[in-house]
């Protein structure tokens, strides 16, 4: 078992000595088979004279003074090794013996299902899309278990959203300026290239960037750092995809100073673990490195990962009760073949050049230039002047028909006119038996409806207008990054760091016609304009010559997001006595704007370039490590900084106008933690208490609401009821508090057996009642003369934050046999998981009678508490296991590993979800809540049941 420290932040331990004697320290590196490990990097923290192991795995440090030292040994395909040792007075030589590096294949890509949010559902700000990508291996036991075992079940350490971290690739940020997320699919499948990052956990300072309060993850892909030769990997799984194949070749560094690494990978599945999903993704990497001399080298990196995959839907509990946790409403049969309406495809390659210059003994400078471009497209079904065709639309479920007068005339899920009583029986029978004509999309019916449309003349074009059609929501990005990383060593104990970065982000976001489903064209016109906005043109782009759109044409919205950002991040690390100190600062400036390319019929500010929104941001981070002795430490991390809002948080409804919500400010974070760490050969413990306060956060929720009651007001003051619309809900000045305790323990009870465990007890709450605003692209201007309305405060103080369990526990073991096989297992338990409270139903407008202007008659505080109680999700536990074995056959190396998660096939655990807010007034909300199946119940994602992942690796 690898000996590792209990905290990533302990990488900051520096040699502390002021004596005059000097010592040579040496060791040999070998793998689990006893073979030498060549070209591993050995980094002595606090000293720039890092070394590389030679062909027999030997390395040495010379002229070391007496004191305490720490080295970090890294090598792709191996777990990172952290070692400490002491140099004593008059000790001329110190032999560390043989150091064994173990394979890290057990932390390979696990084929996890990634839930996408397309921005048209109420889950658009749920955080589900960004969590899995944060699964990273770090050096302390708590972080390792949290990532690879708890992270599988959507656990977020400290409840911190991944948008508030930093992920860097070859010196530049991979954060998208529109929403703060990282698209890990941009290097999907290239796990053997990108798997080995350096991590500054949580809000601890980093050498490479200031970061946020959700870790700095730094990846570097130098061609010479990969093992020379070929590596083939084959994976089998029953998760998001079924198969993964990859092949990598590395040349090693030639005598002339050139190194090449190339890799290709593919992941695919005809159908994944979720019904009706498929997966087809490729990955390619090319790395070229030129070493001019010992002080200067340059690298070129190309990363490209085209993909095409379908996604799965959230559902209400009623639907899951009928069809189980693998149900997916986004697909149906067409001519006997499965077809999904929600397909994500894209290709956004990255080109990077990096220059490494060791100016002299005390100074070094890294410079990176990166350009990324390409399109990401997400398809979805759309319709005009017809009912939502989704099988889970509330009017298609048994609960809707059961709510009606049994003798009322209705259209049943098959399209036939009948009574509500008969429609209920038809719907119930279809859902309980799994009739795909009722439980899935009926593509053939959609085609028939379109093709039965009589040809007509529309805006000068004759043909059949589409009632149903597919669209793509497109992001066309162009991103430039330039960054420098400068290091100056004043002496062995003091280091100055300076990071300067510039990003130029441009993203055109628009909707295009994907498929007309048998029709000739679709109108670029609001289908609800006739009823919602009588007398208005209804055109999404007034003045255009061609209103009738065909495949590939833009429609509905088209705008450009621009953002430029500069960050300056100086830092100082030094050692004095028993203290190691790291102080990092930030000064940043960003300017953001929106340029509309469509002239929306309701909004004067929809077209043209809008105002620039400028933000200055500052921050300070500090870390202090106090060494009681070589095995006991106290570690403090503190951070205070502000962060500009992302583009999607800044603009209320950027698809149709350039309006910005009032009082949008930079978010302010005040984060502190204190740890006690034990690091001995037999016991590793980290005990941490933390407190993170967040102020001035802006949150935006966007969703399509069919049936929500709204009113628009024209220039003459005439009111019109609006029943269906794409709406935005904005909360400003949101204050949060995340506090808790973390414990991680690793006990080596035998040389081959370790017991491991963690406990995470958190409390993540809202601290205030934030201001709430509401906008709709079908209303236009409200009675206040603005494209949004102020709903006042959302009363959510002390509500729990959603998105992650607030309590988590894990106990497990790992056995490493000397004959190169291992087995491990762990038990995980989760509790205190909540849905985020929907703001709209917790404002005064929810209880206010629109006619009298007073609260609804008879409404009591007890009634209100009942309907607005927090949505707490059930607790649950899981068993996971993993095993592996390696062989050396001549000059070949073979390794096989397997992981099984959720061995007991627990399908009752809800990983996340969101509250629906279409009943925005108390009487209808309470009435709906009292039904057996609530029409607008919360939508959930469930864990996917038992899953496995098997890896076979072959090196030659």
Automatic annotation (TrEMBL):
Pfam families: CarboxypepD_reg (PF13620). GO terms for cellular component: cell outer membrane. Keywords: Cell outer membrane, Membrane, Signal. It is found in: Cell outer membrane. InterPro entries: Beta-barrel_TonB_sf (IPR036942), CarboxyPept-like_regulatory (IPR008969). Residues 1-21 form the signal peptide. Its main location: membrane. This is Carboxypeptidase-like regulatory domain-containing protein. It comes from Chryseobacterium endophyticum.
């Amino acid at each position: 078992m690898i000996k590792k420290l209990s905290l990533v932040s302990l990488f900051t331990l520096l040699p502390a000595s002021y004596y005059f004697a000097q010592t040579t320290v040496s060791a040999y590196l070998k793998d689990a088979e006893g073979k030498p490990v060549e070209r591993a990097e050995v980094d002595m923290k606090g000293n720039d004279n890092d070394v590389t192991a030679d062909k027999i795995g030997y390395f040495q440090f010379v002229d070391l003074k007496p004191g305490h030292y720490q080295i970090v040994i890294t090598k792709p395909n191996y777990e990172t090794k952290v070692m400490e040792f002491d140099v004593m007075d008059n000790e001329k030589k110190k032999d560390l013996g043989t150091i064994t590096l173990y394979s890290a294949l057990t932390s390979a890509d696990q084929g996890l299902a990634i839930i996408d949010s397309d921005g048209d559902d109420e889950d658009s700000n749920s955080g589900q899309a960004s969590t899995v990508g944060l699964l990273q291996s770090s050096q302390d036991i708590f972080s390792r278990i949290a990532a690879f075992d708890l992270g599988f079940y959507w656990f977020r350490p400290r409840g911190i959203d991944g948008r508030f971290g930093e992920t860097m690739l070859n010196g530049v940020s991979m954060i998208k300026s529109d929403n703060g997320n990282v698209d890990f699919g941009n290097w999907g499948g290239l796990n053997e290239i990108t798997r080995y990052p350096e991590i500054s956990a949580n809000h601890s300072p980093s050498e490479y960037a200031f970061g946020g309060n959700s870790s700095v993850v730094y990846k570097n892909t130098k061609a010479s750092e990969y093992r020379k030769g070929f590596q083939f990997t084959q994976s089998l799984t029953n998760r998001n995809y079924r198969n993964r194949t990859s092949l990598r070749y590395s040349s090693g560094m030639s005598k002339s100073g050139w190194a090449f690494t190339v890799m290709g990978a593919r992941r695919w599945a005809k159908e994944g673990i979720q019904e009706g999903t498929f997966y087809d993704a490729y990955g390619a990497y090319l790395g070229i490195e030129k070493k001019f001399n010992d002080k200067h080298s340059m690298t070129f990196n190309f990363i490209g990962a085209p993909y095409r995959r379908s996604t799965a839907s959230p559902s209400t509990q009623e639907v899951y009760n009928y069809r189980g946790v693998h149900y997916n409403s986004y697909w149906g049969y067409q001519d006997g073949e499965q077809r999904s309406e929600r397909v994500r495809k894209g290709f956004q390659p990255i080109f990077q050049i990096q220059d490494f210059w060791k100016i002299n003994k005390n100074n070094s400078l890294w410079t990176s230039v990166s350009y990324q471009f390409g399109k990401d497209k997400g398809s979805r079904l759309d319709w005009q002047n017809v009912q939502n065709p989704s099988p889970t639309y509330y009017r298609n479920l048994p609960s809707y028909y059961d709510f009606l007068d049994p003798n009322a005339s209705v259209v049943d899920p098959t399209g036939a006119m009948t009574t509500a009583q008969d429609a209920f029986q038809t719907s119930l029978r279809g859902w309980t038996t799994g009739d795909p004509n009722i439980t899935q999309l009926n593509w053939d019916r959609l085609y028939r409806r379109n093709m039965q449309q009589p040809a007509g003349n529309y805006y000068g074009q004759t043909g059949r207008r589409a009632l149903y059609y597919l669209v793509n929501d497109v992001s066309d990005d162009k991103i430039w990054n330039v960054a420098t990383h400068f290091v100056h060593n004043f002496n062995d104990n003091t280091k100055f760091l300076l990071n300067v970065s510039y990003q130029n982000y441009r993203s055109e976001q628009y909707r295009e016609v994907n498929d007309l489903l048998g029709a000739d064209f679709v109108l670029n016109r609001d289908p609800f304009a006739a009823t919602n906005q009588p007398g208005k043109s209804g055109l999404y782009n007034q003045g255009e010559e061609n209103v009738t759109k065909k495949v590939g044409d833009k429609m509905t919205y088209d705008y450009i997001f621009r953002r430029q950002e500069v960050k300056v991040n100086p830092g100082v690390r030094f050692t004095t006595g028993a203290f190691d100190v790291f102080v990092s600062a930030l000064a940043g400036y960003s300017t953001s704007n929106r340029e509309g390319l469509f002239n929306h019929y309701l909004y004067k500010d929809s077209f043209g370039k809008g105002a620039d929104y400028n933000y200055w941001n500052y921050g300070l981070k500090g870390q202090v490590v106090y060494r009681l002795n070589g095995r006991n430490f106290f570690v403090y991390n503190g951070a205070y900084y502000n962060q500009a809002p992302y583009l999607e948080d800044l603009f209320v409804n950027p698809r149709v106008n350039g309006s910005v919500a009032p009082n949008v400010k930079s978010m302010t974070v005040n984060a502190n933690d204190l740890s006690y760490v034990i690091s001995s050969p037999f016991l590793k413990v980290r005990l941490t208490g933390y407190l993170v306060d967040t102020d001035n956060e802006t949150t935006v929720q966007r969703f399509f609401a069919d049936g929500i009651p709204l009113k628009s007001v024209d220039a003459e003051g005439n009111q019109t009821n609006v029943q269906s619309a794409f709406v935005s809900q904005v909360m400003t000045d949101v204050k949060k508090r995340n506090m808790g305790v973390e414990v991680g323990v690793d006990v080596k009870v035998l040389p081959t057996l370790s017991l491991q465990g963690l406990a995470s007890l958190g409390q993540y709450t809202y601290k205030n009642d934030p201001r709430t605003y509401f906008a709709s692209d079908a209303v236009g201007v409200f009675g206040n003369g603005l494209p949004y309305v102020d709903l006042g405060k959302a009363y959510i103080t002390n509500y729990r934050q959603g998105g992650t369990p607030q309590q988590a526990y894990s106990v497990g073991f790992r056995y490493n046999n000397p004959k190169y096989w291992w087995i491990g297992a762990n038990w995980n338990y989760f509790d205190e998981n909540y849905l985020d409270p929907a703001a709209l139903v917790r404002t005064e407008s929810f209880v206010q009678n629109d006619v009298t202007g007073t609260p609804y008659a008879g409404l009591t505080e007890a009634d209100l508490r009942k309907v607005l109680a927090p949505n707490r999700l059930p607790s649950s536990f899981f068993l996971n296991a993993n095993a592996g074995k390696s062989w050396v056959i001549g000059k070949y190396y073979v390794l096989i590993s397997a992981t099984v998660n959720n061995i007991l096939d627990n399908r009752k655990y809800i990983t996340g979800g969101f509250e629906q807010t279409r009943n925005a007034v108390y009487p209808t909300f309470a009435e709906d809540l009292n039904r057996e199946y609530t029409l607008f119940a919360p939508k959930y994602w469930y864990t996917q049941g038992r899953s496995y992942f098997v890896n076979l690796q072959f090196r030659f």
